[in-house]
Design a protein that fits this description.
- The chain has 421 residues and is of the alpha/beta class.
- Strand 8, helix 9 and strand 9 form a beta-alpha-beta unit.
- The radius of gyration is 22 Å and the shape is elongated.
- About 3% of the residues have low confidence.
């Protein structure tokens, strides 16, 4: 059988799940069945570049100028024509796009080439993966409506749309009406967790960078310093925790970079916690970060499937996260225990402005600084998830998010679409 050529197009290989996802699929799809080509745009100035991961796996991406995060009419048009020419040259059997701009330009260019080549007997299947979406938390109502209608149109060009979890599927098919449920496939992310195993006992440099002293705990957050990640909540929760009676010695680590770095550093000074918070920028050896941390926090206003939460679970680190996007599916929706401060209200057994200890982590409400401080108090004092709870989270991560499962799912999707299985 002739190999199926897959052209995988991603906006950019910046630090995060989409880059990992795209690189692993390019590397591990069965080379006896598939020929994979990875296409990417430029990484932004304040973003961490994950191109080293492609190099590690022996992949040489084809780069398209202008296919980056920033919106520019001239650059976007230029990127579109580059993609059109590349698709026409490669004549793929499958076009699979990832992230917003690549999804928009790649699907549109692919659909035009598809029409051109169909008269030559060539049939192209187009897929797109939503690693998140822009339907809340990013823009105002008017711009959000525009993006929704664009996505509805682009969905018509696709064989299937892929989401990472059930909450995303419910959002795009039921809540926002972008596409019928029948056209949406849930395929979670996949990871090569070997880097975590290889980094055990190697977190000393990260602890030193954070100024960690004997007896101190290290609490970290990982992600691009941008509004949607809501690092201000992380800093506010840290400040409120440090003011609590009985707070254990602790330091806070911010891993990542972005346009809000100076503003967040100013906010830490305003809160009077600048001596307790270290901004280390992007870290290439993330396994060393996880080896150093005692607790990982995620404070986002919107998420698809947050990579840092999955990696922390795999590393055996307790997680506190806001209940947004796919987070409850990762940490488990069933409450094991509810912790509330005096004065918090209980309604039908649920905590309002409290902390919910669930099956595999701890969940707080979005924007709840007091809730975050309370969660830190519970976990750092030893009243939070026990060893068995953390082992359950680790087992869940390895069982559900290994790259072998991802590769198998995507392979079957492609083959089924071509009636080859």
């Amino acid at each position: 059988m002739k190999k199926i050529k897959v052209l995988r197009i991603i906006t950019r290989l910046n630090v995060g799940g989409p880059a990992i996802h795209s690189v692993l699929l390019t590397r591990y799809l069965d080379p006896e069945l598939f020929e994979s080509v990875l296409v990417a745009g430029e990484v932004g100035e304040n973003e961490g570049d994950m191109g080293y991961l492609a190099e590690k796996y022996g992949i040489e991406p084809k780069f398209v100028s202008g296919l980056g995060r920033e919106i520019s009419i001239f650059q976007d048009i230029n990127a579109f024509f580059q993609l059109f020419a590349l698709i026409l040259k490669e004549k793929p059997d499958v076009i699979h796009t990832h992230l917003g701009k690549a999804g928009m330009l790649g699907r549109f260019a692919g659909a035009i080439v598809k029409v051109v080549l169909i008269f030559r007997g060539k049939r192209i299947k187009i897929f797109h993966t939503f690693h998140g979406h822009f339907f809340y938390g990013y823009f105002g109502p008017a711009k959000t409506r525009v993006f929704k209608y664009i996505e509805k149109g682009l969905a018509l060009l696709c064989e299937r749309l892929i989401v990472l979890n059930k909450s995303q599927k419910d959002d795009i098919s039921l809540k926002y009406g972008v596409v019928s449920e029948r056209k949406v496939e849930i395929i979670p992310l996949g990871f090569d967790f070997q880097f975590i195993e290889d980094s055990k006992g190697r977190g000393g440099a990260i602890k030193a960078d954070a100024g960690l002293k004997d007896g101190e705990k290290l609490v970290g957050i990982v992600g691009r310093l941008t509004d949607i990640k809501n690092h201000r909540l992380f800093l506010l929760g840290a400040s409120l925790y440090l003011k609590r009676d009985g707070a254990v010695p602790v330091r806070f680590l911010v891993v990542g970079d972005g346009e809000l770095k100076e503003e967040l550093e100013d906010y830490a000074r305003e809160l009077g916690i600048e001596e307790k918070v270290t901004f280390v920028g992007w870290v290439k050896e993330m396994g060393e970060v996880y080896d150093a941390l005692d607790l990982l926090v995620l404070t986002s206003n919107n998420e698809g499937t947050p990579v840092t939460v999955i990696e922390a679970m795999a590393a055996g680190i307790p997680v506190v996260a806001t209940a947004v996007g796919g987070v409850p599916e990762l940490l488990g929706g069933a409450e094991v225990e509810v912790h509330v401060d005096s004065g918090d209200d209980i309604n039908g057994g649920k905590a309002i402005n409290g902390v919910r200890i669930v099956e595999r982590g701890v969940i707080i409400s979005s924007g709840d600084g007091e809730g975050l401080a309370h969660a830190l108090s519970i976990i750092l004092s030893g009243d939070g998830p026990a060893d068995g709870h953390i082992k359950k989270a680790r087992s869940f991560a390895y069982k559900n998010f290994a790259y072998e499962r991802l590769v198998g799912d995507i392979s079957n999707l492609y083959l089924n679409s071509m009636d080859l299985v």
